[in-house]
Each structure stands twice: as C-alpha cells, then as structure tokens.
Design goal:
The protein is α+β, with helices and mostly antiparallel strands. It has 2 domains: about 200 residues, no CATH class; about 35 residues, no CATH class. Helices cover about 30% and strands about 15% of the residues. It has 8 helices and 10 strands. The strands form 3 sheets. It has a 5-stranded antiparallel sheet with strand order 6-1-3-2-10, with helices on both faces. It has a 3-stranded antiparallel sheet with strand order 7-8-9. Strands 4-5 form a two-stranded antiparallel ribbon. The longest helix has 21 residues. The radius of gyration is 25 Å and the shape is globular.
C-alpha cells in the first residue's frame, strides 16, 4: 500500500481453459503456476514496452488464485497494473488512457502464446510430468497426444479482462490482501456438517452441498507446493526497482512544473519520506483486525513488554 503511485490502476485477470488443461496443471503444479506468473507478467510488460502502445515500463503485482466459489480447480492470476509507466530514459512518466490499458484479445492471445511456449519447452526438456494426465496413458503416443492438445489449446478462446478498479487501487490491494494468506474457503462460509454432507455458501444466497470426501478432495486441490510464493511484483514494483525506478516515477508524478530540479536527478530525501517508512506491526494489526496487542484483553490495561532473554525472578523457596 505504501508503494502505490498517485495514478489510476487497472485490474487484469488471466485465466486458462480448465476443461483442456486442468489435469496437466494439477500434475505439474509448481511448474505450471510459475509459467502462469511468467506469462502474465511478460505479457503486460511486453505490451507496455511496445512503443506503438505505451512505450514505458509498467508496475504490477500478481496474485495466484486456484479456486472457484464451490472449490473447483480454476487457476487464474489477478494483477494490479499501473495506469502508465516510466519511459526508457527515466525522464518522464507516460500515462495510459483513463479507461483503457490494452485490447483484451491481444492480452489473451499473447498470454496464451507465452504460456504454451513455456509448457512446450518443458515437454521437450522432459520436465513435464504426464503420468496420470488424461490422454497420456500410452507412452508411445505421447508426442501425438501433446501436439493434438497444443493445437486444441491454440484454437480455444482464452478469457482475460482488464478494467479500472471501481473503488480505486487501494481497494483492490485490500481485496487481494484478504486472499493472499488464506485458503480456498473461510470458516464463515461453512453452514453445516453431517456424516453425509458439508453445506457451504458459494455466491450471494446460493449454497453447495458436497459429500465430506468430495469436500476434502476439492479443498486439497488448492494446497500449494511447499514454500510457493503466490504474490509477486514486477516492473517498477520488482524488488530491484522499488528503491530506484519507483522512486523516480513517484518524484516525476508528484513534482509540479514549477520546480526547477531535473527529473533525472531525484533527491535522496525522497527515499526517506514518512509515507515510505513501514508502519508498526501493532498499528497495522489494530487497523486490520481491531485487536490491540498493547492492551490486556481482560482488563484493558496497558501491557508492558519484557525481553525474552531476561528470566523472571525466582521465588525464595524455588530450589529447582
């Protein structure tokens, strides 16, 4: 949130055709999800760098989701993208049109091409696991089946969309923040549990009822590989750029025409503004949850911290 720029942002979603590719994705979770991140980020950055479209480096954050409201497997990327970017020479900020980023058909086609190229390379390198994937049971026919699957996926319409966040970029980051450290379903959506069925809310007043074994199966579809990072930053928001290019972009956006300093010479002081300093974790926890860890939950009194390496005083009769 502290790295938001004073510009409009777009909400971009990349999806894959589940009917054709779900089995492949489930068998190759880490490889497939990494390929999705690479394809989505490269699609946006490539189009942004294209002089015919924008000619500037965008900033974006991507988050992986794998579920639908009824817990079916549906991998897709949510991306928050700056409405403009820093030009190659670093001297100016180039904004996109207010309600338009890139054509949706171009986004979908380029994402499909980049993801399929990554998967095809993994297949040719022998890194794609195909055991148990429907259609790949016969080892002698795998090349034929793979070519047929590629042809089908290239002919299938892939759905992507881009639109400005309705309530501003901060609202979208808060929306994503509710999902980045959670699983496919939260407790408040669970309605009832019996030996025969689990009932939970899906969307609005709609509900789903599943046998317990099916509920657990769907729930486990969304357990990510151990240590997998499902929230990533690219372009101006990449870790290597947040203290350089992002600072320059902020300076260019906030500097009025009346200032005489050169845009290329960003003052060092802009790196140490109060807005860039991380908020105390206690304050953030209070804002997000209403829990004040500085107060006793029973009496409301102020809690005093004691260093962990300082042992509490022993009672006189303590001989242990």
């Amino acid at each position: 949130m502290a790295r938001l720029l004073p510009v409009g942002y777009f909400h971009v979603v990349f999806t894959v055709p589940d009917d054709h590719i779900a089995g492949l994705a489930l068998r190759n979770r880490e490889l497939f999800f990494n390929a999705m991140f690479a394809a989505g980020s490269q699609t946006l950055l490539t189009l942004g760098d294209d002089k015919e479209r924008l000619g500037a480096q965008l900033g974006l954050t991507a988050a992986l989701h794998t579920w639908t409201r009824d817990l079916r497997f549906h991998p897709h990327l949510h991306c928050i993208v700056t409405g403009g970017g820093l030009t190659r020479d670093g001297l100016s900020w180039k904004a996109t049109r207010q309600n338009f980023l890139f054509p949706v058909r171009v986004l979908s086609a380029l994402f499909r091409g980049k993801l399929m190229a990554a998967l095809d390379k993994a297949y040719r390198d022998g890194r794609l696991k195909l055991d148990g994937v429907p259609g790949f049971d016969d080892d002698t026919q795998r090349d034929v089946v793979w070519k047929r699957l590629k042809r089908k996926l290239y002919r299938t319409k892939w759905v992507s969309y881009a639109k400005p966040p309705f309530a501003g970029p901060a609202a979208v980051y808060k929306y994503l923040g509710r999902y980045t450290h959670r699983v496919g379903i939260s407790n408040h959506r669970l309605i009832s549990l019996t030996d025969d069925a689990v009932t939970f809310r899906t969307r609005g007043d709609d509900t789903a009822k599943l046998r317990p074994t099916e509920f657990i199966r769907r729930f486990l579809l969304h357990v990510l590989p151990r240590g997998f990072v499902k929230l990533r930053h690219y372009g101006l928001l990449a870790p290597g750029n947040v203290n350089t290019k992002l600072v320059t972009a902020r300076y260019l956006l906030e500097t009025t025409p009346a200032k005489e300093s050169s845009p290329a010479e960003v003052p060092a002081s802009t790196k140490d503004t109060e807005a860039d300093k991380p908020a105390d974790w206690r304050d953030l926890l209070l804002q997000l949850t209403g829990i004040d860890v500085t107060r006793c939950p029973t009496c409301g009194g102020v809690l005093h911290a004691r260093p962990l390496d300082r042992a509490p005083p022993r009672a006189k009769d303590d001989t242990s």
